[in-house]
Design a protein that fits this description.
This protein is an all-alpha fold and 313 residues long. It has helices at residues 8-32, 38-60, 73-95, 100-106, 109-122, 128-145, 149-154, 159-183, 189-204, 218-244, 247-254, 257-268, 283-311. It holds the Pfam family EamA.
Length: 313
């Protein structure tokens, strides 16, 4: 198991930074998608983040060296790169068919998969509370989509395709996160993120059209810039949080990300000219989203809450 620093409060703070930035990210991406394709957006996100991280590590004299990777290190790095690149690509492709609130609700499968992977690889506990959490999450997704459930399995060019792509994004993200947690024994979080981002820029460059950036309005350009720095800060904070806090606790806090997206949409829609549907969802959808979040929290933290309750009785 990866040794932790013991600075749990710092790990919680870093996790919360990630939550806030990821909560706003799909809104920003949805705005940029109006006039820029997913591959070009992803190229810019990786290129800007990778370049800034490379400059930082050069100044600090901490550029990663080949000899740092031992044993399974190269394979773990490859899983991290492929996993996060696939997550970025599938997430943006899914976002073409989903509004930000739906996207953030479905992507809650990612923390669940991170939890299950932690149980399998790191021997973290999984008991009755986690089973209850899984049931709550599945029921919550059903309530969230309610009358759209039929559309999911019949509309292979719209909502159904978007949900399927988002599920793939969740799977690939969990693979990246689990591989990175072990890789942190050999490389720092900043070194890992630099390598992933530079590799991502190289992979997505042939599929992108960087010149499209000049066609963006100042509004869209501002959102693109935010997405680039969001990538740098949010994933850096997440990677470092795993150094200080258990994967189960990090995933529990990440579970509230959809609530942040719902709050951001509700608060900003009356003030900003968003290019996507910001109308209120049915009440059952809000209840379902809340149950998804609650289920994710129970998945990650339920065994600790239950054990504390037993200890006090």
């Amino acid at each position: 198991m990866h040794p932790l620093s013991g600075r749990a409060g710092y790990g919680a703070l870093l996790s919360m930074v990630t939550v806030l930035l990821w909560g706003l990210l799909p809104i920003a991406l949805k705005e940029v998608l109006v006039h820029m394709d997913p591959y070009t957006i992803t190229f810019y996100r990786f290129a800007v983040s990778g370049a800034l991280l490379a400059v930082w590590l050069l100044v600090k004299g901490q550029m990663p060296k080949v000899r740092q990777l031992r044993g399974q290190g190269p394979w773990l790095l490859a899983i991290c790169i492929v996993g996060l690149l696939a997550n970025y690509g599938f997430y943006l492709l899914a976002l073409r068919h989903l509004d930000p609130r739906t996207a953030q609700t479905v992507i809650q499968l990612a923390p669940l998969l991170l939890l299950l992977g932690g149980v399998w690889l790191y021997k973290e506990p999984f008991g009755g509370a986690q089973r209850l959490g899984v049931l709550m999450l599945v029921l919550g997704l059903g309530l969230f989509f309610n009358e759209r459930l039929v559309e999911i399995v019949t509309d292979f060019a719209g909502l159904g395709l978007g949900v399927l792509l988002m599920v793939v994004a969740a799977v690939t993200w969990a693979a990246y996160a689990l591989a990175q947690k072990t890789l942190l024994r050999q490389l720092s979080s900043v070194q890992i993120m630099m390598l992933i981002n530079l590799a991502g820029a190289l992979v997505f460059l042939p599929m992108s059209a960087p010149s499209l950036v000049v066609e963006l309005s100042p509004w869209e350009g501002g959102w693109l810039l935010f997405c680039c720095f969001n990538t740098l800060i949010a994933y850096g904070a997440f990677a470092e949080a795993l150094n200080h806090w258990e994967a189960s606790k990090v995933s529990a806090l990440l579970a509230i990300t959809p609530l942040m997206t719902f709050l951001f949409v509700a608060a900003l829609a009356p003030l900003l000219p968003f290019g996507f549907d910001t109308r209120h969802l049915p009440l059952l959808s809000y209840l379902g989203a809340g149950l998804v979040v609650l289920g994710s929290v129970v998945n990650a933290m339920g065994h600790r809450l239950f054990s504390r309750k037993k200890a006090t009785t």
